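Standup notes
- DV: blocked on the single-chain target, sequence here:
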Amino acid sequence: MTTVIPQIPTRSEIPEADTWDLTPLFETEEDYRKVFSELRDAYPKILEFRGRLGESADMLLACLEYDKQLEQIAERLGHYASLRNSEDSSNDQNLSRRAELTNLLTNVHEAGSYINPEIQAILDEKFQRFLDDPKLANWKISLSKLRRFKPHTLSEPEERLLTLGAPVLRGHSDTFSQLTNVDMKFGVLTTRDGQEVALSQSTYLSFLHKQDRDLRRRAFHHFYQEFEDHKFSLASALISSIRADVFSARIRNYPSALQAALFGDNIPVDVYNNLISTVRKHLPILHEYYDLRRELLKIEDIHQYDTFVPLVPEIEADVDFDQAIDLVIQSLSPLGPEYVETLQNGLRSRWVDRYETKGKRSGAFSSSSYGNPPFILMNYKKDVFSDVFTLAHEAGHSMHSWFAQENQLFQDYGYPIFLAEVASTFNEELLTHHLLERAPDTAMRAYLIDRQIEDVRQVLFRQTMFAEFEKRAHEIEEAGGPLTLNVFCELYRELLAAYFGPRFSIDDQLSIECLRIPHFYSAFYVYKYATGISASLALAERVLKGGATELDAYLGILKSGGAKFPIDTLRDAGVDMQSPDPIESAMKLFQSRIGQLRELLLE
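- DV (later): unblocked, structure below
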């Protein structure tokens, strides 16, 4: 018998309708090159304002407006170059385009690096007069936020050096991306029926959803063997990432890398620490779930590769992409016609790059620039039901971007990531609610309940574990301790034991999982997933049970962009993240769902 080996297609082998349409950014490559040249020729003019920002409100306004023009052009160019590179990061033209733009943007930012220090150097009394001047009314929010950074802004020469050195300091991120997305090869796996299937970062999760435990186990070990073979290189990249974070925090006079990361959003450190302590307090609930999963799967010991497979074997996921759009749109109907119609039109007019292709970036994301569509990258698999939730999640980001652009000026539209994770997980909660209400039988209801349990497990518990790893790893560097591969593995193994619990079998290879998490190379992001799902659960309940007032309050979050600090924005919508209540409520829901699942499947 001849075995056909399914190959990951190249970009030219898939229908154009399944790819995103980047022509709203640039019709052709020539158009991109023209705008690139225009930016290269225009940016030196920003130097004409140097040394004059404190002269008058008029002079400051002229500089800010010209700098905004440059930033809008740079954002659009960066958006296009980034999306093209994510299509195929092995393509030399994509790599060259991105590298060339990086060099230009370094020059642009270097030329404008005097702006912040000069603004910070304006005496307080004069700065207040500028803020009160009607001419600067459109800049009052951004100027007030900028002024907060005065204690952490260096002299003009120092700022210039940091700007020039930024690509070097952050080179570890490109190293990690190239190594994991291009250089690493995972080979193929043979299923029970003799079919050979390519293993990749994208298909790995698909394998872990299979009912065949031996296939899951082999996928796990095969996958991690490749990381094992590159563990020293990956550890070196992670060490460089952490050291860059600590260096940047110290040189800007922050007490720690964590506090530096939280400062921009004005998030108290207690919010981060309370998240970890509250989740830690409820870990026995998570351990209870793993016990239930082991019992339902009828296995003696439970491993990490047993934690993704659906607990209802007879439910087979077979949802094509257009069906996924329908499900997501229907579930979001409580958000009103403007939200739903805009999203539906976008998803069906090629906002989305749908499927995996060779060299394409793994995972999923939403990416936007002012005045342009908020594009979505997917690696959609119709046999992975969680990909429907991923689409809902990324649609939340995209609609957040759309509403922010519609309601805020360029300088105020960029919303903080803290709010972004609320908007995305909120959509997942509405999708869960929609599907549960229409579950045709007990088996489907059980499947969906477990899916929600898994959402909370992976987003609240797992991301908090990641957040704790980031915090402790940075503390080691800040205390002068050694950062090595062994230190990473020992720390991560300790966290695995705490979060998975005493009755969980932890494979040795899992200790190097810390080396393959992309967010660890851009630290102190993952905690926002955990706080985001806690806030979104509370907000979804308010919208579903409330009326126009609650809906308007939620849409107010999306429309606010970056006009307010995120803690204040959420509080205005009815959720106080400085209180442990949202996290405690999420834990109660998690425990309740475990009980419901046990009742449906065992009693």
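- Follow-up: Confidence is low (pLDDT under 50) at residues 1-5.
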